[in-house]
Amino acid sequence: MSSLKKKALPMLAQGAEPAGAGAEPAPTAGSARPRFWRSFAELDNTPEFRASLEREFAAPPADVPPNAPERRRFMQLMGASLGLAGVGCRWQEDKMLPLTRRPEGTIPGSTKRYATAMELDGVAVGLHATSYDGRPIKIEGNPLHPESLGGASAVHQASVLGVYDPDRSDKPWRRGAGGAAASDWTAATTFLNAHFAKVRGTRGYGLRVLAERSSSPTLELLKQRFTAAFPQARWVTYEAASSDGARAGSVLAFGKPHRAVLRPEAAQVLVTLDADLFAPDFPGHLALARSIAKGRSPDGAMNRIYAIETGHTLVGTMADHRIGVRAEQVKTFAAALDAKVSALAKPLPELGDAQPLPKAELLSEAHVAKLLDALAKDLVKNIGKSLVVAGPSQPAEVHALAHRLNAVLGNVGRTVTYVEDPLAGTTSDIADLKQLADELNKDRVDTLLVLGGNPAYTAPGDLGFDAALGRAKTSIHLSLYDDETSQRCTWHLNAAHYLESWGDARAWDGTISLVQPLIAPIYDGRSSIELLSLLLGETAKPLDLVKATHRATLPDERAFRKALHDGVVAGSAYPVVTPALVAQKPLALDERAVGGKKLQNGQLEVTFGPCLKVYDGRFGNLGWLQELPEPLTKMTWDNAALFAPATAEELGVADGEPVTVTLGGKSVTLPAMWVPGRAEGSVHLALGYGRTAAGQVGGHAKTEVTPVGANAYALRTVAGYQAATGGSAARSNASLPRLSATNDIYNIDKIGHEGAEERAPELVREATLAEYKKDPHFVDTKEEPHPPLLSLWVPPVSYEGHKWGMAIDLNKCTGCSACITACQAENNIPVVGKTHVAEGREMLWLRVDRYYQGEPESAQVTFQPIPCQQCENAPCEQVCPVGATMHSREGLNDMVYNRCIGTRYCSNNCPYKVRRFNFFNYNVKEIGITPYTPTDDPKMKVKSMVFNPEVTVRSRGVMEKCTFCVQRIQNAKIKSKNVKQGIPDGTIRTACQETCPADAIVFGDLNDSGSQVAAAHQAPRAYALLGGLNNYPRVRYLGRVRNPNPELG
Amino acid sequence: MNLFVFPRWANKTRALAGLVLGGAPVYLTFLIWYGASPKTTDVGYEPQQPVPYSHALHAGQLGLDCRYCHNTVEQAAVAAIPATDTCMNCHARVHTKSEKLAPVRESHETNNPVEWIKVHDLPDYVYFNHSAHVTRGVGCVTCHGRIDQMEEVSQREPLSMGWCLDCHRAPEKNLRPPEEVTNMTWSPPDGADPVEYGKMLRAKNNLNPPTDCSTCHR
Q1: Going by C-beta distance under 8 Å and a sequence separation of 6 or more, which residues neighbour residue B196?
Q2: Residue of B nearest to A979 (CA)
Q3: Hey, how many other C-beta atoms are within 10 angstroms of the C-beta on A474?
Q4: Closest Cα partner for A283 from A608, A117, A509, A129?
Q5: In chain B, N or C terminus with fewer CB closer than 10 Å?
Q6: Are A678 and A606 in contact (CB under 8 A)?
Q7: How large is the angle between the packed helices A330-345 and A366-381, nearest 10 degrees?
Q8: How far from the centroid of its chain's Cα atoms is residue A160's Cα?
Q9: CB-based contacts of A992: which residues, under 8 Å, 6+ apart?
Q10: Given an 8 Å threshold on Cβ–Cβ distance, is B84 in contact with A100?
Q11: DSSP letter string over A580-618?
């Protein structure tokens, strides 16, 4: 009790202070630097941050008049509802439209799942799409698919929103000197037939095809027929996020292009060289997350991860040891690692000579040198049980060294296998695109056919590709949106979404998936397959084309249907080969690679990379992704220039303030963000923002919708494609909207914050493996002292039937945030837009808190997903004046939307801050997804088709929160009782659990002693968040265990 | 002078005002309680359907089982309005020229659905599942009334939350053997007391209807 008393005193004193005292220097407890922190404002304990703790919701940004348009909107809505009140007592008449011919087995109003696949950059991920009355409403991973293993990413989750995006192009457009004219497919087909008949006459002279990467075998066959019909034509593939380095690196290493298929299950030591294994641009990212997370169980042989990277990647946050080095210096480290490892491992002579140990300033730094030695020893100790991976943005030499290291360490065939690269003919996407641009500029291209992609936007700025496009006499762009490229082409053809078309695609290891449509094309769009077969004058339907491609492996209807059902064609992976390693030449390391970490302004390194959310920009119009807080920066609706704090300070660039980044004479102004753990002297710009023809969400110049973020492609150059040098950055006076980052919005209570030094380690409980082995119950020692948990009354509910509970393993969570978007899709959560996010009005039920720990230069990261904790003794239930949040007999905190009158007492009383309030009717705002827009525009009506009919769409003035996906629970219960059977463990999976690539979330019945969740709750690492508040939360976190190398202390 | 003296009858206004002021809240409470209750507003709702389909004829006189048309009622949340083809199973041969069936024939030819009007229309924030009730022995007649006697279907029960909860709290009086759910005239065998019989069924089938909010609101 004495410790409690001591702590209680300053709390009272603080409360008694007069208003405005918050601006005074913080009281004793707050002035110490916290061990865990979520932003620089918090670390430095700025007055603004302290003020924000006083408020339940963030203050509106100063540059936006308080709710100006919304106030008008409110009056309109009020007027409308008053008008309705006088009409009558009965609500709108509802119609029922039965099918005229109901196919066998179709049950109206129930869901079915179909296997399909989504391709990104030529790699397919097998998915299950949930169909409700013939419309896809939800995506899950396909457990049978090697790329997914059951997980799906935020990008996949949001793809379903793309089907119903009202900004999607609904017809072909013809553009010429006279401007743009709407056309239709009949006219377009007539034109295409006539035009390509002419082109066929010249055997395709002056014809160029620019396609996005696809692994579709059917498309490949069509391409062969196309090339045969138009032998003079040339086919170019371009992806803004493609890894030329990986392909070229395998040529350096093996003399022939190969693909590395990673098998990290057996890896004890994992080294990443600027590689984010969990990012959507890394092939196999979902399966990698699953197997690496599995290998991090402290009860088994726990793996150890070393990350050498420029900025924090998702895998870097999981790493046990991590250093931030500039992208251009990664090769120095790789060479040094090869030198050290080869010296210890004494590889066979046929592997060639090792790299000489480079003389570099980087390696002379004490902590780097120490890490290098320890890492080399650790690797050699784990021969055949380690894995070295180079990142897609790294140059060929680094990839070649990674291949060599794996060969030297005996990992080939164990933790990494090789297949021959099917793209053997391709050298470099960017070189091919440059050649095409040159041809365009020399007027050598008569007809340019652009199959997907958006090259006018995604080509490097110095290529001037958008202008070059206009020089083709005829240019045809097949695309989902009438986008930047379409607007510079003479024809735009509307494409079909992958959920609308037949096709096929291959996983990274070659496994074939059939892509089946969930819905007929809403706007009569065509897929690349359909368009190519049309141009070839073929009449076969796409399904028949796909069937014909796989006739050899799937000879009959039965085999085809099985492949369709499973989502994979069994045994279709590429054969594994063991290529012989070619001896590597010593690397030519330039001055910058071996130089120090201090760089002059003007000499900065600028790195580019696809965004974890909108990728290369193609998902820019999907509100779910724009609103998703970026895992590390927690930024929504924006991109920023990411700086190491030390560099930013030197440059005089403030956190969150506008900065102008200049490279090669071109500059872009965007907000700066200080990011802990980033290499000094390196600036990162995320690609995919600043779009001018994305749509009403991502930006649309024609209708004066401001672009989201700034376009980093403008700075990208052909030479410095992944990382460029010679960048400079300067503070800018431009007025930009404030960054809408969510890191400081939901701070867990002020009092807790004042004791941050004690409280944060209580929220996120961590130990090293050695500490865990010594005391498996380490989480209990971090519990804040609290009085015995007594209640005034006997708990009124005995939980005799089911007792639902959840466990989240912090050791497995990668922070990827797929769970957030999955939750949004499942539970009809609205998108509120940038301004409202800045005001703390985001509606996402599930958030992933990101804590930094330690000093900014070497900060460690911990992620903690926070859903509603479904307390047994819930503070929210006790304060609701109208009984709108009630306790169910299974222990859920039920939320009854139609009873809620919006007092927000519950939110005020929730210690976890997981309740969200509908300040506005977000579902009728333009930015959201409209269910009831009073408009006859059919495209606006299409928007509401994405809603899950099992979940109520909430209106203004209503509180909402995570329900543990109660609709899934209830459906499983009804189903099991209909057939008089129990519910086996694992039947009910919440949306967040089902999508989690790392399998970090477990859900089930705590009364079932054999259930996974009951076991997790019993585990020594399990702890309740703020358990001392006597809430008895139903969510348990499994404490995080790190596995540092004992040699490195 | 007398001009400024209240007339004698004015003395009565006080009582009158008292009556009005005292009575108004009572009256208003009654008005809202009675006038806005689903019993008043919803019971008896009988919209005109596009096809004058007679349940009295089909389910009553001809004795078609409910599940011939509403065939998903035991498996799904919705009982499924029959597809046009279900009508045409018979009406391709019976009454092929009937004026009343014109919309059905048109739907069959054009593949456009017949636009039926929903009679038992719950608010959007309420979830109801037919299979959960039918497979546990709640008869169709309990909620829908004597459909077999209705020419045009109308709502017979208020379908209000209180009405639902009455049964969820004490389901005995509405229980029957699950195989008898579509029987419109079922009564307990051998003249048994319906409540006692229901209690027996409830124990036998282990029925514990939940009254949690999330049972219907989710």
Answers
A1: B172
A2: B135
A3: 18
A4: A509
A5: N
A6: no
A7: 40
A8: 15
A9: A819, A820, A822, A823, A846, A865, A867, A1001
A10: yes
A11: PPPPPPPP---HHHHS-S---TTSEEEEEEEBTTTBTTT
Q: ipTM of this model?
A: 0.88
Q: How many helices (H) and strands (E) does chain B have?
A: 11, 1
Strand B116-117 relative to strand A1040-1042, pairing: unpaired
Contacts of A898 in chain B (CB under 8 A): 123, 125, 217
Say how far apart CA A489 and CA A180 lie, in whole Å.
10
Instruction: Give chain A positions within 8 Å (CB) of B121.
Output: 91, 94
- 3-class DSSP string for A339-400: HHHHHHHCCCHHHCCCCCCCCCHHHHCHHHHHHHHHHHHHHHHCCCCEEEEECCCCCHHHHH
Closest Cβ–Cβ partner in A91, A100, A801 for B83: A100
Please compute the mean of the pLDDT values over residues B103-128 and round it to a whole number: 92
> How much is the pLDDT for A60?
53
Coil/strand/helix, residue A451: strand
* B156 Cβ neighbours under 8 A, 6+ residues apart: B43, B44, B144, B145, B146
- Give the pairing of strands A1001-1005 and A1035-1038: unpaired
Q: Which residues of B touch A98 (CB under 8 A)?
A: 80-84, 113-114, 116
Per 3-state DSSP, chain A is made up of helix, strand and coil in percentages (nearest 5) of: 35, 20, 50
From A739, A744, A601, select the one nearest A658 (Cα to Cα).
A739
SS3 string, A1-70, reads: CHHHHHHHHHHHHHHHCCCCHHHCCCCHHHHCCCCEECCHHHHCCCHHHHHHHHCCCCCCCCCCCCCHHH
Q: What is the pLDDT of residue A57?
A: 56
Six-digit token string for B157: 């029960």
- The pLDDT, as a whole number, for residue B2 is 67
Ramachandran assignment for A938, one of left (phi > 0), alpha (psi -120 to 50 degrees), beta (any other):
alpha
In one letter, which amino acid is A506?
R
Positions of chain A with pLDDT under 50: 1-32, 62-88, 752, 926-934
The nearest CA of chain B is from the CA of A949 a distance in Å of 9
Alpha carbon distances (Å) from A376 to A329, A330, A1000, B129: 18, 16, 31, 63
Q: Rounded CA gap, A210 and A477, in Å?
A: 9
Tell me, what's the pLDDT at A1?
33
* Element holding A494 (H helix, E strand): strand A491-494
Q: What is the three-class DSSP state of A695?
A: strand
* Partner B contacted by A94 (CB < 8 A): yes
> How far from the centroid of its chain's Cα atoms is residue A777's Cα?
34
Please tell me the predicted confidence (pLDDT) of residue B9. Answer: 84
Query: Nearest-CA neighbor of A585 among A808, A354, A425, A791?
Result: A354
Tokens 């030479």 sit on residue: A719
Distance CA A181, CA A832 (A): 34
The Cα A912–Cα A428 span in angstroms is 50
Q: What pLDDT score does A652 carry?
A: 92
pLDDT score recorded for residue A90? 62
A109, A886, A952: residue with CB nearest B78? A109
- Interchain CB distance below 8 Å, B114 and A101: no
Q: What is the DSSP string of A787-856?
A: -----SS--S----S--EEEEEETTT-----HHHHHHHHHTTPPP--HHHHHTT----S-EEEEEEES-G
The answer to whether the CB atoms of A898 and B125 lie below 8 A apart is yes
* A696/A272 Cα distance (integer angstroms): 39
Residues in chain B: 218
The answer to whether A472 and A445 have CB atoms below 8 angstroms apart is yes
Contacts (Cβ under 8 Å, ≥6 apart) of A732: A657, A658, A659, A660, A669
Q: What is the pTM of this model?
A: 0.89
Beta-carbon separation of A109 and B76 below 8 A: yes
Query: Do A630 and A613 touch, CB atoms closer than 8 A?
Result: yes
- Report the C-alpha gap between A250 and B67 in whole angstroms: 65
Residue A635, helix vs strand vs coil: strand
